[in-house]
Amino acid sequence: MKRKEVVLFMTVGTGTNLNSSEESSKTLARKLYYTIEKIRPIHVVFFASDKSKETIGYIEELFTMDNDEFIAGEDYQIVEISAIDDLNTCFEAYESKIWEFDYIDDENDYKIIMDYTSGTKTMSAAMASCGMFYSKDLISVGGDRSTGEVSRGTEIINYQNIYKIYDKFVLMRTRYNFNANRFMACIDMLNYIVDLNIHKESLLHLCKAYYAWDNMDFEEAYDNLRKVDANHIELSDIKNDIKFNLKALGNIMNSRSVNLKNCYILASLINNSIRRSEEFKYDDAIARLYRSFELIAQIELTKYNIKSSDIDVSILKQNNVSDEFILELEKTREDGKIRIGLEKDFLLLNELGNDLGKYFIENKSKIKDLTKKRNYSILAHGLDSLTKKDFDEFLKIVLNLSYSLDKDMKKFLNQTRFAKFDLKLKFNKNS
């Protein structure tokens, strides 16, 4: 047999029924011989039932008649499938050979072609599925079927272009990855879509927007989300979520109210921590909660025109902060500035008679325990790993404070919660 660097996978039918005639087997052999001669593979793998093995003997005879040879073990091999009507059995038989030639054999670079023309319906369906799953070339033999079967001499090899199926598969995986916050993976997959009927640009902008937002890059997120056309069928199930998210980002970017802008940023940060916890990244999640905790105090202090990064003592005096507290702050002055951290922020709020400061004092022991755990975290100053219980306790504190910070905080949290696709793929009903 003449060869090219290609491996040809083929199914071999069992005949029309248990009483298949010799002529039926010879007819099938001629079809398979035609395909082999056209493809010129280096090796053929036949998947056959025990009853269909004799067909391969007729193929050998056809090679001999053409002054060629077809040698078992060298030119071809037979993989016997006993359960020819079991989809999983057939699929796994094909899959094992793909692994053998693609992954186990490191010395050769094979191209694999899979012919699903013959065999039981189950064998053919499994071959087509396996070929699609592993991105292999799929072929079938067509021709004049006026007599019911493809007439001899009219055979044509049809290479099946299944890009639409691949694109649908990519779209499905994109939705799963998007819901899991793996936005860069989504972007990588979407770039492979070739079907012009899929609104790839909007999907790419969508994923870029949420990737940026997840990294707290609000400007980039807003710029991309504005370019998303949520009216496309692929986005129909998250259309309202996109609308709310766009409003939130719009307030962060354009609101004239500093407090409103800061509250939306805080809500984004809290939701960011919740997403990390859903991924079981509790150290990361608590690190973000810690920043949220600190930000709550900083936002509240801005209502007094106080910046924790540069304390103006005159403002403290105007608000009747005790001399003892001011003296303690003065001891920390460096480079002409007084800078305070999370605990001092809340203690200052307490000095100002603020409810958030009072909450901190009332829960100081519990809060100190939680912040101590955070400080010993691998992502802070220690080597400890935090738990879901640690996160849940810290989140409860942060949410209580945030609700006290602004009466609309639940709305802010809802509007900054990332959109999630309905994984039932309802959009397929209209595509």
Automatic annotation (TrEMBL):
One Pfam family of this chain: Csm6_6H
Which ranges carry the Csm6 6H domain? 172-237
Q: Which InterPro entries match?
A: CRISPR-assoc_prot_Cas02710 (IPR014082), Csm6_6H (IPR054008)
The protein's name: TIGR02710 family CRISPR-associated protein
| Species in which this protein is naturally found | Methanobrevibacter thaueri
